[in-house]
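Appendix B. One record, verbatim.
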Amino acid sequence: MDLNTHRDVLKVREFLKRFAIIIYTGSQIDDIVLMDLELDDLYEDKHLDTEDYTKFKLALRRAYTELDQGGPGKR
């Protein structure tokens, strides 16, 4: 995962921590999938505006794609 993508995923993690949501499975891809699901729930509950929701979802999608295609950092 490149540095910018990694930073974006960390931003999502920090956002989730504000709601006491901490995700660590030991698998980067599994973490991304769970973070994605948590974002959906927070958005549905109106804790996240559309702009941030879209930005976070795109960051997670980019990270997932990089890892799934065998990019650096694949575990």
